[in-house]
Design brief:
The complex is a heterodimer of chains A (about 180) and B (about 625).
Chain A lengths: L2 E8 L4 H14 L4 E7 L7 E8 L12 E6 L2 H7 L3 E10 L8 H9 L3 E5 L1 H7 L6 H10 L8 H11 L5 H12 L3
Parallel strand pairs in A: 1-4, 4-5, 5-6
Antiparallel strand pairs in A: 1-3, 2-3
Helix pairs in contact in A: 1-6, 4-5, 5-7, 6-7
Chain B lengths: L5 E5 H11 L4 E4 L8 H12 L4 E4 L3 H13 L4 E6 H6 L1 H10 L5 E6 L13 H8 L3 E2 L4 H18 L3 E3 L3 H4 L1 E6 L16 H4 L3 H23 L5 E3 L7 E4 L1 H13 L8 E3 L8 H9 L4 E4 L5 H5 L6 E2 L14 H15 L9 H10 L14 H13 L29 H15 L7 E5 H7 L1 H9 L5 E6 L28 H7 L4 E5 L4 H16 L6 E6 L8 H5 L4 E3 L8 H5 L5 E4 L4 E4 L19 E3 L3
Parallel strand pairs in B: 2-3, 2-4, 4-5, 5-7, 6-7, 10-11, 10-12, 12-13, 14-15, 15-17, 16-17
Antiparallel strand pairs in B: 1-8, 9-11, 18-21, 19-20
Classes of the chains: A alpha/beta (about 180), B alpha/beta (about 625).
Chain lengths: ~180, ~625
């Protein structure tokens, strides 16, 4: 299975950690991994876009219009990075508002068979008293959809393995909550 | 290591792995995006493997270059690491050491930044290789970068010449699964053999050395004609061929595959852009009707191709002559070429339509800003309040370049440029009998890198201006590398401190004050006194050392003494604070038409209580 993923959000939202969860899972399963991240000069609050390609690729960058899956940890970043998705692609957006999409953009998605899932990962993580685990709640939600490259158990064991001590429980609880679509 | 081990490594970590696996003895660097992660990874592997190599953060790139070069003089293997503009700083020893040659393998790693994403130029380090007449290798992936480090050491040792490895940002900051290879044990007791005709050559000997260098280059070029650093991919459709190097090659491969054109057109991958293997290239060109050259950032391969009649590239405008060669740009180019050649490509999704739709949404532009609680903001704000909008504010390279958002940075040239630009501005105005307030800002690491000589020059030549050294205790911009002022070494151990204040005193500065800019009123008063000093008959340069740790590096002072702030209901929404102070934690609440504090990112530094002229930002009670 080859897959091209984009993970997008703001500095501080754990985009890079989420990327690491996927790439470490892929490594454990014996995939070839290539990726790249882009971020501006600012350390906090700036856009962060992470490209991840699993399988036989040469370039670490995903070309616009070719990504299979987009994880957006912020609504505005979802708009900014939607162009990466291919026809028939999937996107998961951290949004409390459900169907927040602009009408024209929604039409673009429908015309191109793009399926968008909104999930209020921030509020779920806040309820669990671990606001910084929202990234993993969204990942958990993603793994509940069968078309994503990895299953719940595979990703979960990676999170267990690579989370720094002290955050482990919170990350797993958030991930599971997302998986159960709480 | 007995068992094979794989890790997902950053390109820079893969390069570090290559350095360590080559048995390199001395590694030096000055941090700069996109090169900064290499040296810390060398430290990591050195600790894991218990190696006794010497690893240092040097004061600047020229110093780093020469320290590593001298190790090579003794026969040891050495590497120096920097970003592309760092090579400008190290240009002097690069040019000279090409002539003198080296003894132990000597590899110069200069990371380029097409885009540019975090640099003042898009300059192509391969031109420096050509200028200095030393070979350059251009990796296309982290894995290849690791292998090319090893090849570079071999070439350098065999030909006695420095070798430049030139990764671009998309190699340095890519991630790839990399298998760890065994570490080469290279026994090289230091042995400097005196040879004044080489190591201390006078101009008469230099001519001889230049001839020798030309011969080495010729022999290297011959070696490159058959080197496996250059590879080719066959294709039957010879109406179009590609010559590609570095990241452009990787992007080309993936894009051709996505367009269903894989294997159709022949490709020559060039890993050795200088000196170019001329026969290899000429034979390839001869076999194609047209050849598209894809490389970053400039036309280094293309310029060297002798017969350009079939060549398409940057020189004839087929490829844009500035900016990154992105997958999107290459995709468009290939679709267009395929159309002309009648090759069918799949109909792709029309992202142009989406770009228009998203453009109409008017999403706010997220420009880079200083962090909440950043000491630079406090210093810029106090400085501006003391000297006003008529002042001229030369700035420098670091996080604090973002002082431009606060209109407290008027020029940014290069490392240390704030001090020299301030000197030159003073001389220009004073010549006309004009007294303009000039206040330059420079960070602690940048001051140590290249501020000291400019300051000595300013004092010596009687310039008069205020210099604010923004001392946050670390090299924050590039990821918190230690500075000489902290005394902390690359491996985390303690070395000898080199105090900034002592250096300023030694330059002959008469006015030196150290103060925490969080105390905005006091800081403002110091700036005014400093300005007065520049106007006194026996005055001169006045230096203020604004000292407070970077909030990301050391948040402990904030934890000890948090100042919880709030905006009162009297706020009329004028947004002066948001423009003049620009803290990301002060946000406009449109529903209330006033400014509020974003508690999620506010770090309770309390500095903004000075930022509202109407006194609406106050310390919260209780």
């Amino acid at each position: 299975m080859d897959a091209k993923l984009i993970l997008a959000g703001l500095g501080g939202q754990g985009v890079l950690f989420a990327t690491r969860v996927f790439s470490e899972t892929a490594l454990a399963l014996g995939y070839e991994i290539l990726g790249s991240e882009t971020h501006g000069m600012s350390q906090r609050g700036g856009s962060v876009i992470s490209h991840l390609k699993l399988g036989a690729y040469d370039s670490p960058l995903v070309r616009q219009g070719t990504a299979d899956i987009l994880f957006a940890f912020d609504e505005q970043e979802a708009y900014r990075t939607l162009a990466f998705l291919r026809r028939g692609g999937l996107c998961f957006v951290n949004s409390a508002q459900g169907d927040f999409w602009d009408e024209g953009v929604a039409r673009y998605m429908a015309e191109n068979d793009i399926t968008a899932y909104s999930y209020g990962a921030d509020s779920v993580a806040l309820k669990l008293r671990s606001p910084r685990s929202a990234n993993l709640a969204l990942l958990g939600y993603g793994t509940s959809v069968t078309e994503t490259p990895f299953g719940h158990d595979q990703v979960r064991s990676t999170i267990e393995r690579i989370t720094p001590p002290g955050f482990g429980e919170a990350n797993l609880v958030a991930f599971d909550a997302g998986y159960r679509r709480q | 290591m007995s068992e094979s081990r794989q890790e997902v490594l950053l390109g820079n970590e893969a390069i570090a792995r290559g350095i360590v696996e080559s048995g390199c003895h001395v590694v030096t660097s000055y941090p700069g995006t996109p090169s900064s992660e290499i040296l810390p990874a060398v430290v990591r592997f050195k600790k894991e493997l218990d190696l006794d190599s010497h690893v240092e953060w040097s004061i600047n790139e020229k110093v780093a270059y020469e320290v590593a070069l001298a190790a090579s003089y003794t026969g040891k293997r050495a590497a120096v690491i920097m970003k592309q503009v760092g090579l400008n700083v190290a240009a002097d020893p690069l040019m000279s050491s090409a002539y003198t040659g080296v003894k132990g393998g000597f590899v110069v790693i200069s990371c380029d930044d097409p885009g540019p994403h975090s640099s003042q130029t898009e300059q192509d380090s391969r031109f420096f290789a050509m200028f200095a007449k030393v070979p350059a290798l251009d990796p296309s992936s982290p894995r290849e970068a690791r292998e090319m480090v090893k090849a570079a050491f071999d070439i350098s040792e065999r030909q006695h010449v420095p070798v430049i490895l030139r990764p671009t940002l998309r190699v340095s900051h890519a991630r790839q699964n990399i298998e760890f290879m065994p570490v080469l044990k290279v026994e090289r007791p230091a042995d400097f053999e005196k040879d004044p005709g080489r190591w201390a050559a006078t101009p008469r000997f230099r001519l001889q050395l230049h001839k020798e260098l030309n011969e080495k280059l010729q022999s290297i070029q011959e070696e490159f004609e058959t080197s496996d650093l250059n590879t080719s991919v066959s294709g039957q459709d010879r109406r179009l061929g590609f010559i590609a190097g570095g990241t452009s090659y990787s992007v080309l491969k993936d894009t051709l595959r996505e367009l269903g054109l894989e294997g159709r057109f022949p490709i020559l991958k060039i890993g050795t852009p200088y000196p170019l293997p001329q026969r290899l290239v000429a034979d390839f060109v001869a076999g194609c009707e047209q050849v598209l050259v894809l490389e970053e950032t400039d036309a280094v391969i293309e310029l060297q191709i002798l017969d350009k009649r079939k060549v398409l590239g940057r020189l004839n405008g087929v490829v844009p002559s500035a900016g990154e060669l992105t997958p999107e740009m290459l995709g468009q180019l290939l679709v267009q070429k395929a159309g002309v050649l009648g090759a069918e490509v799949p109909q792709e999704i029309d992202t142009f339509e989406l770009a228009q739709l998203v453009g109409e949404l008017g999403l706010p532009v997220r420009r880079p800003r200083l962090c909440p609680g950043c000491m630079h903001r406090a210093a810029f704000f106090g400085m501006k309040r003391a000297l006003g909008p008529k002042g001229i504010y030369p700035g420098d390279i670091g996080c604090y370049t973002l002082g431009v958002n606060l209109e407290a940075v008027d020029t940014v040239l290069d490392m240390g440029g704030s001090v020299t630009i301030a000197s030159g501005l003073y001389q220009a105005y004073s010549q006309d009998g004009l007294d303009v307030p000039i206040a330059a800002t420079i960070g602690d690491s940048t001051f140590l890198h290249s501020g000291v000589a400019p300051l000595a020059n300013a004092v010596y030549n009687g310039a008069r201006f205020v210099l604010v050294i923004l001392d946050n205790g670390t090299t924050a911009m590039t990821g918190m590398q230690p500075t000489a002022d902290s005394g902390v070494l690359a491996d985390g151990g303690m070395g000898q401190r080199v105090a900034i204040k002592g250096l300023v005193e030694a330059c002959g500065v008469k006015f030196i004050e150290e103060i925490d800019p969080y105390k905005v009123k006091e800081f403002e008063a110091v700036v005014k006194r400093a300005r007065d000093h520049t106007r006194e008959p026996d005055g001169g340069v006045a230096v203020i050392i604004a000292k407070h740790p970077c909030v990301l590096f050391d948040p402990s002072p904030l934890r000890k003494n948090p100042v919880r702030v709030m905006v009162t209901e009297e706020c009329d929404g004028c947004q002066y604070c948001r423009i003049a102070f620009e803290c990301p934690a002060l946000v406009m609440d449109e529903t209330q038409s006033r400014v509020v504090v974003d508690r999620r990112i506010c770090v309770s530094c309390g500095v903004c209580t000075e930022a509202c002229p109407k006194g609406c930002i106050v310390e919260a009670e209780g």
